[in-house]
Amino acid sequence: MKVDIGRALPLGRGGASRADHVSMRVKTSALYMSGYLDGILKFWARMHDGQWLAGVTVYVTDAGGTNSVEIDMLVTADAITEAPAI
Hints:
The chain is mainly beta and 86 residues long. It has one domain. Helix content is 12%, strand content 41%. The protein is built from two helices and five strands; from the N terminus they run E-H-H-E-E-E-E. The protein has helices at residues 5-8, 24-29; strands at 2-4, 36-46, 52-61, 68-76, 80-81. A five-stranded antiparallel β-sheet has the order 4-3-2-1-5. Strand 3 (52-61) and strand 4 (68-76) form a beta hairpin. The protein is elongated. It starts with a strand and ends in a 5-residue tail after the last strand.
């Protein structure tokens, strides 16, 4: 399963800093939260208004690809997609 992190976390709004104002040290060691991330669907939960939320675990690496972390999160149903069949 894939999680569209742009739908799950609209990071481009509000107080986000521009990338050209961030030091290279931060850029290379910070979490890479962009595009589609691999994940595992844990559960579905229905909200009071009828929308569905997915409980997922996503695997996030740093920009250099050397460190990774698992993050548990709730996302709206439109943020997840099935992985393409191989």
